[in-house]
Amino acid sequence: MIKLKINGFDIEAKQGATVLETAKENGIDIPTLCYYPDLKINSDCRVCSVEISGSKNLQTACSTPVKEGMEVKTNTSKVYNARKTITELILANHDTNCTTCSRNLKCELQDLANTLGIDENRFEKVLEMDEVDNHNPSIYRNPNRCIKCGRCIEVCKDVEGTYVLENQGRSNEVKVAPKYGKYLSDEDCTFCGQCASVCPVAAITEKDDSQRVFDAINNPKKHVIVQVAPAIRVAIGEEFGHEAGGQWTGQLISALKRLGFDRVFDTDFTADLTIIEEGHELLERVKTGGTLPMMTSCCPGWINYAEQQHPDMLDHLSTCKSPQQMFGALAKTYYAESAKIDPEDMYVVSIMPCTAKKYEAARKEMQINESIQDVDAVLTTRELAKMIRSQGINFNNLKDGEFDTPFGITTGAAAIFGATGGVMEAALRTVSEVVNEKPLEKIEFKDVRGFDGIKEATVELGGNPVKVAVAHTLKHAETLISQVKAGKSEYAFIEVMTCPGGCVGGGGQPYGTTNKKRIERIESTYRVDGAMQIRKSHENPTIKKLYDDFLKEPLGKKSHTLLHTHYHPRHKKT
Amino acid sequence: MPEHKMLTKRIGDINPLSIKDAMEKGSYKQFKKALSMERIDIIDEIEKANLRGRGGAGFPMHIKLMSTAKQEATPKYIVCNADEGEPGNFKDRYLMEKDPHMILEGMLIAAYAVGASRGFFYIRGEYDQAISIMKWAIEEAKEKGLLGKNINDSGFDFEMEVRTGAGSYVVGEEFAMIESIEGKSGRTRVKPPFPTDEGVFGMPTLLNNVETYCNLPFIVEMGGNNYKKIGTPTSTGTKLISLSGNITNPGVYEVPFGTTIREVIDTLGGGVPSDRKIKMVQLGGACGPIIPEFMLDMQIDYERFEEFESKTGAGAIIVMDDRQDLFEVLLRIVKFFEHESCGRCTPCREGHVHLEKLLRKFFKHDGTPNELYSLESLARVIHQSSLCGLGQSSPISIISTLGYFRNEFHDRMAFDGGEES
After folding, report:
1. Quick one: A73 and A187 in the same domain?
2. Residue B173, φ and ψ in degrees, nearest 5
3. Contact, A436 vs A445, CB < 8 A?
4. Where would you tag: which of A466, B226, B243, B252 has the fewest CB atoms within 10 A of its CB?
């Protein structure tokens, strides 16, 4: 242990800890702006400046490791004046129309200004308005709000390995912008939204589709149904003041019903369906000598990445649509027929932890016919929470609701889709039983669980050992891809999720998502699975009924039309 | 006697384009002597000599040498900072153009002492002549077997190449330079780790100014104890001064530490022309303090300079006579730094814009007591909280003049008798 003094008090700290961490553990808050847990420390904003004995200049608490005998002062007038001045400087070059900003009252800069008691700015406004990027279905980028903290650049570069955003120019003309193009859509952006998730202000957010959804709900001609992804129920409560690690399925359903959706369904249902289709596709590929390893296709960020960066690898992708798209396709056919509703009058909304899902839903391949998309609107967890608040619905006082039928009966296998390794585990539960023709002794495949970047497991299928692998973040996926390209991949099946932790850590999840919270949501996900009566997709009775009544067989003709898709190599513009 | 020619002694006598001529006049003798010494003994002599960096910050050379030498990771790199972008400085250019082999010899001694195998000679892009002379000198040294594999049968390998800047001031800052060498845009990094731990391509890197390296052959030759007899007890050796501005004989002069600024201006520089009076003198370059005439008896000395929140700087003395308007000077300086800020940290990126706006008010005789307060507070915040040396030193001119020339700020208020609140 290291002994030091902070503000005159004796404190013990761990070797290697920073001044910021140590202060926090001891009940001393040092404000920060560019600092974000899990990201590389740049100490660019200088807001966490403190006085440290032996240094004439102020030092940033985020980047300074503790040392034996160090004396730190976090609250002198010198420190306070520096923080205040720095914040005023940022505000002078920031679009401060706070009341009409999507992050009003949820903005780290606003919080900071408030904490520091800034009630006027000594510095003249120097903001020069720049064009807003509203040219893609997923991400909205408003450079006039950007405070150049660099978090988005770090997450894009260091976490995802995608290098889309970068610092451009120098001096006060510095901009954070897409690398070559003017718009994100000019770039190889996967629309994963991790940048939006870490942005302290509203410089990068999801494209807000809530008004479109309200319009549909308020249109008496429309039958508006909603599906909820597995990762929403373990995160939505955080928007309403709860700690990460809970699950709020019942309240979520009630809130959606109060918002006026005609039916509230569960994407878990089509997650089960994905397992049946994808599991059979894998077995088919193995049996017929098809392209292996097969790679999962539920993550739209990953699909974008594969099409952009690895157009020669598209045969490896499962042809299955994602659960979101399978849901939309079935809703506007199977459900429409049985409920006797014209699909033209139907409006399908998804609640997703993801910004790339907005792009996926808008794809040409994802439609019933030329005028009907499978899914009409996608809302992130954050957008949904905002809608709930806007309608005066007191989320925390809601009684538990229940999903509507037929897309409401689901399994534990589907519930874990939201966690990295979850799709793989769900697939293994089904594939093992189908191939081995006997019930699993151990239903849980713990090798594919956890937060390691790459996980692998070996399973016995028909007496043969089969190796599978799981990657989360595109940076880690790249390792597995290069093995495949080099002909050195030992795996039959690979799961890839773009976001750290899988969908629970998606770019559309509540602000403040950190790896710690991701892990808590993952644990909660497995608790949901453990509490389910049915835990294997192929044992879902409504899935069986769906095949009997409508689809007939996995990989059959109807499945092919409705549930499978194809991919396009994308020419790089750069 | 203010001049003490050591580094500049043979300048004018030797042909910078001839290694033969340079070697006949002593070049590389001390390097060969160093090759016969233990590495630790070389560092020991430099420690005894108390050599401090000549690029501006004045960091003790032996500490950098020691911490690079004890790193286990290889390859190690050494970098010569010849970016000399600080307005008012031209002494490194003088050394490169007049005696390139003295610099190479100093770098070789340092490289040998720390076990570096590759050197980067980073020259400011505008210095066309210095670039071609250094490239020529490196080629000649290679031909003589003074660079390359197994130099002088010592088992010591060392390669060297010239890198040039592309017009950025901030790459004179050590980490911005390292980023630039790596092919990235010139922006500093967070410290720690320091370059001696993780520098060029993440490897241990020794980075010093041209003039600093030039001192090494002399320390090897005379030994640390003799070297430290030159100068003052706390600041040893000589300093090259770039003397410019309203001065009769501008140029580069080498003086021992302890010489007063007035001696340099009057005795070496021949004073101010046309019998004008000195109004102010800026020390170190655009990033240095501006002092009034009555302070010119202060000695050129690391300790003395630190008293007014300044580093010695690279040794520029810019003389301004009584025709110069302080606010015109300050505005020019602040606009320079506003343009040269890399844009990474907030105080420097956003702060200079407002320093300029506030100064302009005083320039136009339109300042207010509140603006004076804001200017002072902002200048101090940029100085105290910027990430690298640029922002830490750019407001020194304002901070120093707010002390020494405060009445001029009052005179520039929008109304008479502007009392500070």
Report:
1. no
2. -75, 140
3. no
4. B226
pLDDT band for position A574 (50/70/90)? very low
* ipTM of the complex model: 0.92
Cβ partners under 8 Å of residue B60, min gap 6: B47, B50, B51, B52, B53
Residue of B381, B386, B387, B399 best to disrupt the A interface, most CBs of A under 10 A: B381
pLDDT at B169 over 70: yes
Closest CA to A468 of A478, A480, A479, A476: A480
Task: Please check whether residue A542 touches B, CB under 8 A.
Answer: no
HSE of A483, CA atoms in CB hemisphere, 13 A: 15
Any residues with CB less than 8 A from the CB of B385 and at least 6 apart, and which?
A46, A49, A57, A58, A82, A86, B345, B347, B391
Residues A285-296, mean pLDDT to the nearest whole number:
95
> Interhelix angle for A381-390 vs A249-259, to 10°?
60
pTM over 0.90: yes
**Which segment of A317-321, A418-422, B31-35, B306-310 scores lowest on mean pLDDT?**
B306-310
Residue B309 confidence (pLDDT) above 80: no
Q: Quick check: A47 and A40 in contact, CB under 8 A?
A: no
138-177 of A, contacting B, C-beta below 8 A? 148, 167, 169-174
| A189 and A63 part of one domain | no
Q: Return residue ranges of chain B for CATH 1.20.1440.230.
A: 326-411
The CATH number fitting domain B19-227, selected from 3.40.50.11540, 3.30.1490.20, 3.40.50.1260, 3.30.460.10 = 3.40.50.11540
Instruction: For residue A446, give its domain range.
Output: 211-563
CATH 3.40.50.11540 placement within chain B: 19-227
Residues A161 and A193 occupy one common structural domain: yes
Mark whether A546 and A456 lie in a shared domain: yes
pLDDT above 90 for A167: yes
Judge if A171 and A320 occupy the same domain: no
Interface probe with B: pick from A122, A151, A166, A201, most Cβ of B within 10 Å = A122
At A98-136, the pLDDT tens digits run 999 999 999 999 999 999 999 999 999 999 999 999 999
pLDDT in tens, A48-95: 999 999 998 999 999 999 999 999 999 999 999 999 999 999 999 999
CB atoms A171 and B309 under 8 Å: no
